[in-house]
Known about the structure:
Layout: H1 2-6, E1 10-15, E2 19-25, E3 31-37, H2 45-49, H3 59-66
Antiparallel strand pairs: 1-2, 2-3
Amino acid sequence: xxxxxxxDALVGSSDHGTTKSLYGKDPDGxxxxxxxxxxxDLLDQEALDARRRIRPLDLGREKQRYxxxxxxxxxxxVPA
Length: 80
């Protein structure tokens, strides 16, 4: 996130409960999204309930909760 801010490329962020997103733009102005999915084994009721609304992303809180080195989930993070 710091690198995106430093490059004046960060245009937004959001918390979708089971996914966390950063939104940016490249030098040509094309927008992109970086998404981190909570791994299935770390999903809890709080994350599942939070899917009903979009909140501002508190990256510090999420790093405290899941750790800065936790790999993201694969595919859809909503159990079938």
